[in-house]
Amino acid sequence: MTSVVRGAAVLSSLVVFLAVAASRASAHVKYVTPGSDPVEVVAFLVGALANPFNLAVLGVGGLAVVATGAAYLGLRPFPNDVRAFRRVLASYDDLLPWLLRLAVGLPLVGAGFSGYFFSPVVEPAAPVFVRLFGIAVGFLLLFGLGTRLVAAVGLVAYLVGLAVEPALFLAFEYVPGFVAIALVGGGRPSADHVVASMAADDRTVYARIDPFYRRVALPFVERTRHLEAYVPTVLRLGVGVTFIYLGIAQKLMQPGDALAVVSKYDLTAVVPVAPELWVVGAGLTEALVGVLFIVGAFTRAASGVAFLLFTTTLFGLPDDPVLAHISLFGLVSALLVTGGGPYSVDSALHRGDAGVTDANTSPSPTNGERGY
């Protein structure tokens, strides 16, 4: 009961923080629209929820989600198929570092060439340093050279930038991305893997002249190896916070901009419902996905819903900057591989399932496989 109370307190604090941050940060929808006339939040929500049809649609949708989850937990259909599915995804654990490097490195390179700092809404007046930073850090991560150190530098740069420009909270997924990369290292294929393999072989000349591998890199990896099991937890929390922020702060708390997107792309012609229902439905869906990630419930299913949301955005909004979403695409893909990990509802539910092998219980790769 204590853990439940603490969890509720954390979620409540998070909602309050996001509501405050919404008043200072630029909305995600500004990627595709210059903005709109301000709409009073309380009046918008009261008006949207006062409509019996809107309320019925949201109520039926919520009940359907709860009923589906309860039915799955009660019936546990196709157990062997589910076990095989989890086992196959968990077998990709050795590719996790490479996936994380792509997820963070690619958008950073794009940000560097485009001249913005992590998020398209943050474009410094003198972008030379920003360009060099994004290109250098992005390519080093893609190449896998000095991976842990580069990830730490990127994390510090993001946090410093966030303290100066709160709009960077829109790219908060970089935090779990950098932390996860710092924990798992470069993996394979990477330059770090090549260098580590050569340094670990006493027969090579390089092994005798490398002053870094045995004195610094290897001890660091050994001391932090136990933390790799918490990578799924880090990813869940970071991605979950991002989704809640997008759903609550960027849609429900700024309905004017969200309504402008619905109008610009005539989304009511795709699904003939009121624009207010579009905004509230999208906001609540993203917030629900975020909560599922944070508590680690149905993590892989939530990742599938996230993929659907991303795909709809990318193909439905033709002028949306694709690079701005690659990081979330990659991190959600990583959660498909790892599952919920430690401190998750999924872990508690699956603990008694025989034959289930999650990423957090699979053997840890060797030093040569992870690299520096």
From TrEMBL:
<feature type="transmembrane region" description="Helical">
    <location>
        <begin position="150"/>
        <end position="172"/>
    </location>
</feature>
<feature type="transmembrane region" description="Helical">
    <location>
        <begin position="51"/>
        <end position="75"/>
    </location>
</feature>
<dbReference type="InterPro" id="IPR051907">
    <property type="entry name" value="DoxX-like_oxidoreductase"/>
</dbReference>
<keyword id="KW-1003">Cell membrane</keyword>
<feature type="transmembrane region" description="Helical">
    <location>
        <begin position="95"/>
        <end position="118"/>
    </location>
</feature>
<dbReference type="GO" id="GO:0005886">
    <property type="term" value="C:plasma membrane"/>
</dbReference>
<feature type="transmembrane region" description="Helical">
    <location>
        <begin position="287"/>
        <end position="310"/>
    </location>
</feature>
<dbReference type="Pfam" id="PF07681">
    <property type="entry name" value="DoxX"/>
</dbReference>
<protein>
    <submittedName>
        <fullName>DoxX family membrane protein</fullName>
    </submittedName>
</protein>
<dbReference type="InterPro" id="IPR032808">
    <property type="entry name" value="DoxX"/>
</dbReference>
<keyword id="KW-1133">Transmembrane helix</keyword>
<keyword id="KW-0472">Membrane</keyword>
<feature type="transmembrane region" description="Helical">
    <location>
        <begin position="229"/>
        <end position="248"/>
    </location>
</feature>
<keyword id="KW-0812">Transmembrane</keyword>
<feature type="transmembrane region" description="Helical">
    <location>
        <begin position="124"/>
        <end position="143"/>
    </location>
</feature>
<feature type="transmembrane region" description="Helical">
    <location>
        <begin position="322"/>
        <end position="341"/>
    </location>
</feature>
